[in-house]
Amino acid sequence: MSEHLDGRFSIIGAGVMGEAITSAVLEHGLYEPAQVCLCDVSEERLRYLRERFGVHITSDPARALEGCRTVLLAVKPQDFPAVADATSGMVLPEQLVISIIAGVDLRTLREELGHRAVVRVMPNTPAQVGHGLSVWTATSEVTPERREQARRILAAFGREVFVPDERHIDIATAVSGSGPAFVFLFIEAFIDAAVHIGLKRQEAQDMVLQTVLGSVHLARATGRHPAELRNMVTSPGGTTTEGLLVLERAGLRAAMMEAVLAAFEKTQALGS
């Protein structure tokens, strides 16, 4: 268990990520349920989360700010203006704002909230199972003590990487933020292919998931370049060679590069 963090912790936006973060900080002992307040427009959602975690709930963003030391914004980008309007002039100088809102940059956050101490984060959905990746940065007004607090919160649901340049947040949005969807599409297609050649769907899913998981563990454990690991599997004139030839002819490599670039450009468009 980790040492408790001081003060009240509020999360505005109690969707999938809000729930995952709540679960993580409570499980790691960073906060007690009595210290946590969740805010959302859905009363039904709030009742469910209060029953699950024993936390405070409110549908009013302004009330969520009252008495809190740290507030985490987890609403959808299109809902941020409404939250900013509801809390305009209410964020105190000593409060820390952490935002995981995709595409909303630090300048916009500071101007709309009227607040300077802001941390911007790009997490991803594997945070739901404690294997997320959070790439984050902070304004100069965030003190070293508060940066450490933010780091501990983010580390509760996976790996965290601090970057000094906000441009890396947009890059992370395209790579690690959108990336799980690209991986899931590959896994889905891989499973369908296994079913096509004769496996039952559950057998195919188990085989493909373990293959992907084992490959990731091997790459991380050895630290070798993926091309080197691929060559270890690829015997001259063998079955893997034939399969790789098809993937290269189909343009898998180029399609991945174009997909990441498209996600990156969309991120920049949302931010502007």
Between the first and last Cα atoms, what is the distance in angstroms? 41 Å
User: Strand order of the main beta sheet, please?
Assistant: 3-2-1-4-5-6-7-8
What gross morphology would you assign?
elongated
The profile of the biggest β sheet is:
8 strands, mixed
Radius of gyration: 21 Å
Residue-averaged pLDDT, rounded?
Answer: 95
Number of helices: 12
Helix % is 40-55%
Helix/strand/pairing category: alpha/beta
| Poorly predicted segments | none
Number of strands: 8
Strand content: 5-15%
Task: List the secondary-structure elements in sequence, H or E.
Answer: EHEHEHEHEHEEHEHHHHHH
Core attributes:
single chain; 272 residues; alpha/beta; eight-stranded mixed β-sheet; 12 helices
